[in-house]
Structures are given as C-alpha cells and as structure tokens.
C-alpha cells in the first residue's frame, strides 16, 4: 500500500502549520544533521525522494546544484512546493516513490528526508537508488530511529504521575513491518526496520557506508524548544550517508 | 583504568560455572551470530582480543587457521585457556588489550567476543586494529548493544507486579562513557557508546563496514532457555564485521 497521508486535509493543514512555524524537530535536529554531511553540491544532479514542500530541493539549488528532481506522492505537497519553492532548476513530480522509473538519468546525489519510514519495501527502494546513482554518487537519507519505530504501542516516553519522563520504552524490535500511530489523525502508517536491516541492505546493494548520525538538537533548538533536551536520552532520527562504488 | 574483573575470585568462579554450563547468551545468541559471518579461516593468522578461556581461538584453529594469538588481561582466564584450549598453534598472552604492541605482525582476521564494551578508549583500539590488519583483513567483534548499555540504571526490563516484562527502558543514550553494574559482584564497569560512534570510528580508520548483526537466539536456545524469546523484543548484542581496504 502506498500511503498518502499528506493528502488527508486535516493532516495536511496541521502539518503545514507545524512546518511553517519553524519550531520543529526537523528544524533543530534532523535538517541540521542532514546538511552537516551533504556533499558539495556544485554542478550536481540531485534526486529528492519525498520532497514535500521542496525546502531541501531549494536548499540544494541555492548551494550550487545544477538541477533537482523532487518526487512526492502528495498532490498537496507538490502544490505547496510549486508555491513556496518553485525554481527553474527544480522539477517537482507527483508520484509515489515506489513507482519512480527514470531509466535515462543517473544522479550524483539522492536525498530523502524522513520519507523512508513510510515505504513498505525498503530493499526495492535501495536497489533502485543504487541503480540511479553515478559511480561515486551519494545516497543521504534520514528516517525515524529504529528505537522509536520498534514498539507497537506509541507514546513511548514513560512518565511518572507528575508527567516527568522516566525513560523510553522499546519493544518488538525484531518484528519489522507496519506500525500505526496517531499523528494529528488516526492511522498514520510507518514501517519499522532494525538498524542492521537499514545498513545491511545498503551494503548488499553495492553501497559503502560513509557516516551514520543519531542527531541531537542544535543549541538554538534547546532554547526555543526546551523539550529537545530529551533527544540526548534517545535519538529520534537516524541519518545515513552511503556512496556508490 | 584497565578493568580486570575476571581476576576477582568470586566473579571468576561464577563466570566459569556459567560458561561451562553451555546454557548462556553466548552459546545461543552471540557465538552463533559471530560464527555465521566469520570469514574462511584456512591458513589465516588470527588475533583474538579478550580471548578469555580460548573457546573462539580453538574454534579458529579447528577450522583451518594457521595460528591464533589470544590476548586477555586476566591471569585466571589465561590459565583456564591453557588448561581447556591449549594448542600448539595458539599463543595465549596475558596482557591488557590496551597495552598490545605487535609491530612485526599483520593479521588476516582480528576477532573480539564481548570485550570491546570493557575498554574505555575505543578509538585507540580501532586505530591499532586497523594498523594490525593486512589489506583485505577483517575485524569482527561483538559488543553489548548500545540500547542495553545506554541507561545508567540497570535491570532495564520494566516489569509489572507479577513479574511480566512490560518493555525495555532506554535512557542517557547520547552520554557515552562509564556504566557500572552488578553482575555477580558490584562495580563491573562497561562503557556505553552509541551505534554511530561504534560504526563511524571504524569508517574513520579506513575500514569498510561489511555486516551488522543484532542477533536473536538460535532455535535450540529457545527450547533450553525460554527467556531468550525476549531477545526478539530488544537485542542484547551488536556484531560488527568490517574489512581493511
């Protein structure tokens, strides 16, 4: 099943309002970490899988990429991208990542910010990515951390009666597959995969692991969103950079 | 501080009795996973870091290795190795892994079973290992899983009033360093490191990641030690295989 939660009107409204606030986990945790390891973009052809409203696509162009192709399943998101981050060097394509076929292209960089955990079939994605990369090309993606996706029940910060966070609950780690959670709306589906599956699938498809990041908040985030201090207690994201040999 | 808990008489007695029972996490979880990815041993020169009583050293010789050098800090363990697993092709050396200097050797395989989490200085270990490996040589080691070492408090299976395991508690993930626990005796010291530190340190020292395993129990283990079913809920170990370019 190809999930298109971002075309749920309620979800989309809440999500856009959150993203536009500039006060999110993306702004202070995930994006700074992604950008800290993004390779030199000058003259590069970039594919952005799950481009959303095009923030990262735009960032790539502003930092020298020659062209970005952004792909997203959501009509709402592609419309938003064409409104907020339109650029002559960016092509936004509305399509499920799973259906992507670009037989005439080879990319220098394939990026994907927090989309991989929505995809059911990770091995096929990685196989496709590997074929779409030039030799020496880089696959850089972020995903929810396996410690976060593991437990079937959600709201995994266990709290005392006064609401203080005691510790983070992990369970069902080796049972990969579908997890359902409430995030603005019911029935948001994510897919849990172990750290070893995330990494070995890349290795098995001819990619070399370059860097793994389990990011914490940047200092500015801790001031504006004090709860980000808990990112030091368990990571929310895993960022993986791999290159094609 | 170089820890030598295995020369504590009480600890050693309990530990040897446990290991000789043949009914341990090592027998059913960690060792099968290590052996499943051990490279061809025929004619190989092997270094075993934290060789303990020499079981793995002996296994390497029985599977074709030309010579094994086993290193362990513990006098008790080296004596045990010379009793139980003496072999003309094995040299057991009593020495802290941290003090190891073998300037005239290059190894085809460096293995280490559940010793790395006792070492305070992981980067220096990896630097040394990388220098001691032949080109194409393999570093294969197991360590306690970062999810297990993370929380400062131990006994992390949170249980209900009837003793059922509810979930596994993680905390303090990004605070690397010393953790103290009771394991037969008080004051057993282990060092917590994140997944990203474990892996990036290898990459930064010229090693290529080949495989990461978060093992579960083999079927025989589930019959003899039913509690190993909980290994599916959170992994106890991480096994990492990397090769020298």
Secondary structure blueprint with pairings:
Two copies of one chain form a homodimer.
Chain A: H1 9-21, H2 25-36, E1 45-49, H3 55-62, E2 67-72, H4 75-84, E3 90-94, E4 107-113, H5 122-132, E5 133-144, H6 146-149, E6 157-159, E7 165-170, E8 177-183, E9 185-192, H7 195-204, E10 207-213, H8 219-224, E11 237-244
Parallel strand pairs in A: 1-2, 1-4, 2-3, 4-5
Antiparallel strand pairs in A: 5-11, 6-7, 8-9, 10-11
What does this entry look like structurally?
The structure is a homodimer of 245-residue chains. Chain A is of the alpha/beta class and 245 residues long. Helices cover 30% and strands 30% of the residues of chain A. Chain A has eight helices and eleven strands. The first copy, chain A, has a seven-stranded mixed beta sheet with strand order 3-2-1-4-5-11-10, sandwiched between helices. A two-stranded antiparallel ribbon of chain A has the order 6-7. In chain A, strands 8-9 form a two-stranded antiparallel sheet. In chain A, strand 1, helix 3 (55-62) and strand 2 (67-72) form a beta-alpha-beta unit. Chain A is globular. The model of chain A has no long low-confidence stretch (mean pLDDT 95). At the A-B interface, strand 7, helix 7 and strand 10 of A face strand 7, helix 7 and strand 10 of B. Strand 7 of chain A pairs antiparallel with strand 7 of chain B, so a sheet runs across the interface.
In short:
2 copies of one chain form a homodimer. Chain A is α/β, with parallel strands linked by helices.
Largest interface: A-B, 35 and 35 residues
User: Could you tell me the number of beta strands of chain A?
Assistant: 11
Mean pLDDT of chain A: 95
Category by helix and strand content of chain A? alpha/beta
In DSSP terms (H or I, runs of 4 or more residues), the helix count of chain A works out at 8
Low-confidence stretches of chain A: none
Query: Beta-sheet strand percentage of chain A?
Result: 25-35%
| Distance between the ends of chain A | 32 Å
Helix-strand pattern of chain A? HHEHEHEEHEHEEEEHEHE
Strand order of the largest sheet of chain A: 3-2-1-4-5-11-10
Assign an overall shape of chain A: globular
Oligomer: homodimer
Most strands sheet of chain A? 7 strands, mixed
Percent helix of chain A: 25-40%
């Amino acid at each position: 099943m190809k999930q298109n939660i971002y075309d749920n009107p309620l979800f989309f409204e809440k999500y856009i309002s959150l993203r536009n606030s500039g006060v999110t986990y993306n702004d202070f945790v995930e994006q700074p970490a992604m950008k800290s390891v993004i390779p030199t973009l000058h003259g590069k052809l970039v594919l952005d899988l799950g481009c959303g409203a095009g923030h990262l696509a735009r960032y790539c162009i502003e930092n020298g990429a020659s062209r970005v192709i952004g792909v997203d399943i959501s009509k709402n998101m592609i419309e938003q991208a064409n409104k907020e981050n339109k650029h002559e060097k960016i092509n936004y394509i509305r399509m499920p990542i799973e259906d992507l076929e670009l037989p005439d292209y080879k990319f220098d960089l394939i990026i994907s910010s927090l989309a991989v955990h929505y995809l059911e079939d990770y091995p096929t994605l990685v196989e496709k990515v590997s074929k779409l990369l030039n030799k020496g090309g880089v696959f850089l993606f972020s995903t929810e951390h396996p410690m976060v996706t593991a437990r079937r029940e959600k709201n995994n910060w266990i709290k005392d009666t006064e609401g203080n966070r005691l510790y983070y609950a992990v369970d069902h780690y080796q049972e990969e597959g579908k997890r359902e959670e409430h995030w603005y709306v019911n029935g948001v589906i994510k897919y849990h995969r172990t750290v070893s599956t995330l990494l070995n699938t890349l290795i098995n498809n001819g990619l070399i692991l370059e860097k793994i990041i389990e990011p914490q908040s940047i200092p500015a985030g801790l001031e504006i969103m004090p709860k980000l201090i808990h990112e030091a207690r368990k990571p929310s994201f895993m960022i993986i950079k791999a290159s094609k040999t």
